[in-house]
Amino acid sequence: xxxxxxxxxxxxxxxxxxxxxxxxxxxxxxxxxxxxxxxxxxxxxxxxxxxxxxxxxxxxxxxxxxxxxxxxxxxx
Amino acid sequence: xxxxxxxxxxxxxxxxxxxxxxxxxxxxxxxxxxxxxxxxxxxxxxxxxxxxxxxxxxxxxxxxxxxxxxxxxxxxxxxxxxxxxxxxxxxxxxxxxxxxxxxxxxxxxxxxxxxxxxxxxxxxxxxxxxxxxxxxxxxxxxxxxxxxxxxxxxxxxxxxxxxxxxxxxxxxxxxxxxxxxxxxxxxxxxxxxxxxxxxxxxxxxxxxxxxxxxxxxxxxxxxxxxxxxxxxxxxxxxxxxxxxxxxxxxxxxxxxxxxxxxxxxxxxxxxxxxxxxxxxxxxxxxxxxxxxxxxxxxxxxxxxxxxxxxxxxxxxxxxxxxxxxxxxxxxxxxxxxxxxxxxxxxxxxxxxxxxxxxxxxxxxxxxxxxxxxxxxxxxxxxxxxxxxxxxxxxxxxxxxxxxxxxxxxxxxxxxxxxxxxxxxxxxxxxxxxxxxxxxxxxxxxxxxxxxxxxxxxxxxxxxxxxxxxxxxxxxxxxxxxxxxxxxxxxxxxxxxxxxxxxxxxxxxxxxxxxxxxxxxxxxxxxxxxxxxxxxxxxxxxxxxxxxxxxxxxxxxxxxxxxxxxxxxxxxxxxxxxxxxxxxxxxxxxxxxxxxxxxxxxxxxxxxxxxxxxxxxxxxxxxxxxxxxxxxxxxxxxxxxxxxxxxxxxxxxxxxxxxxxxxxxxxxxxxxxxxxxxxxxxxxxxxxxxxxxxxxxxxxxxxxxxxxxxxxxxxxxxxxxxxxxxxxxxxxxxxxx
Lengths: 76, 736
What we know:
The complex is a heterodimer of chains A (76) and B (736).
Chain A lengths: L12 E7 L3 H9 L7 E7 L6 E5 L2 E5 L1 H4 L2 E5 L1
Antiparallel strand pairs in A: 1-2, 1-5, 2-3, 3-4
Chain B lengths: L15 E7 L5 H9 L4 E4 L6 E6 L10 E5 L11 H11 L8 E7 L3 H14 L3 E6 L1 H6 L6 H8 L3 E3 L8 H9 L10 H7 L13 H13 L2 H4 L3 H8 L3 H25 L4 H5 L5 H10 L4 H20 L1 H22 L3 H18 L2 H17 L1 H15 L7 H6 L4 H6 L7 H10 L9 H11 L5 E2 L2 E2 H26 L11 E2 L8 H35 L11 H7 L13 H13 L6 H4 L1 H13 L6 H9 L6 H9 L10 H9 L11 H13 L4 H11 L3 H27 L4
Parallel strand pairs in B: 1-4, 1-5, 5-6, 6-7
Antiparallel strand pairs in B: 2-3, 3-4, 8-9
């Protein structure tokens, strides 16, 4: 299993390699800027550990872990 | 070139139609209000709850010709994943009406790296485009100033810098819009690249390239129905395997972002600059507190408590004032017209009905004022972020929390508040959950039965039985709401979990003017749409409970006024007046009920006819009439029951009715209202959807009678079955 964004440590940066799966979620993730090559930073986890706050393309976007795990990346 | 122009060039100097597009949180609403002077009409597209607003550009801005502006929903993209985007695309593509002549795209200058995605999609659509480059001040402050001329060259469309907050640049935007047709828009290399049909899945003949890409994306997202495809289009899509559609849709998004990056490079952004979020640095500092795992949750609780008390108690004086005004108007009408059926119709039907509508206005206005301010400031997204984990357990979005909480005060504003939930299934599930929450109108009913039928000094440990029962009812209602939500989400409303992709926008100072306009739109819509239903039902209830009148009591309808009118102050019982209490005592001793005018009425006869059905849950025809009357609003049950007993009573002045209930005897000398019967009645009111206003609002929000009927039927059935169960099991165990 490749590294994905749900496994990011706080403050760590990663470069997106692939948005897996099909359907509305995959398309929405891509449209929000999680395209291959984009650098993502984990800014924060919500108080109960989920969802996550990620920085992507100059925005802060919140994703649930289950959704973030669909985005494969390489740690920078 | 001509193909890029709107059909207006053929229509002469008529009004220019402009569609305002843009991402959420880019100041689009402020810009719209500046352009139109905040005079607009709210519209809805058929079948969806997405609102659009339209207004004319004000003369002060000196448009060279009349311009009307249509405000589209704020979207990140035009791909129809949700209704918002579908509405925006259908409007821009001219699927329903004539397409707009010009698109005005609002871009956040401080966040071009994501905002330009929508610009690229709009260029693909090929409609004349003018960019309003908003938040120039924020971008400059954040150290990433944008050169509008460079952006105009790169995009190949006019770019007007604006600061919507101050109105700066608005006049120039109007000028640019008015002259768009005289300035031929050259096809830039970018636009040419975007329009080139280089897809892996080329558009079949007869379907435009932009339309085809849109259909492919919708098919890949599994939301093809939102795109409203023709039979031919469906057939063309069906010719391709799903994997090919997904691959093509994904490749298209990636290609668009490649163009965005090329655009950013062209206007001088480095890769590092587009990655960072300089406009977010101040917000990140605020978030260190507001989404902190301890402080954040603490502040969240305080914010929610403030919202809750605003609709629970702050609205109360205003509601009392509305009640007084209606009472004063009724007196004036009665004095002017003298007694008679027509006077009663006006005062007890029409005026009482108007009161039943207006009484909700303070709660709705307050809730939307607070929600609007929090939404515009950026806090509501954080609130959803904080509690999403908890809400996800029930299968709901974090945004469902506030409406559910508001349900403890009143279901009406709570149901209206579900509009912040974008997924239609999630929104409907939340709407169906809200009436289970124990609203403030149920409280007087619990108080009546508990204090009438349960000894005040019965204790379990340090707590009185009554207070434990109250806590129990609230716990029961909460558990039932959560269970109902889980059941609906797993059955009828089952579907793929909607993506929780939530932007946490930069914090901004909300603009009171924008929020107040929103509050006005919402409230006016409630009065117009749900209000008519509430008014009509009030009149019908008045007729049912007033006619026919007993032959010897010509003025008997008088008491019904008190019964059918919703009592706005139900939420905070006041001290009852001693005089009223004394009156009540003297009336009570008569204990008349069979001869009350209300028992003689149609409603009374319905109550009697229902008695065989009510007996299994320990209730008689008197409660049947009270349940019928409580359809106006739950607390009206008290004044209706008072009328049956020939007593002036309402939820503030309960003492005489309490004593009547306590003293009432059956012919055999046994107590008529026993604790067990009272408990069964209270269980019934925990579950029964006895509130015409709730049903009217659900109809308005779901655009059909189907869901209010489903809600009423399921909740009534549940209420009946559980009340029967409580009574029968209680009796079997030897309780009375």
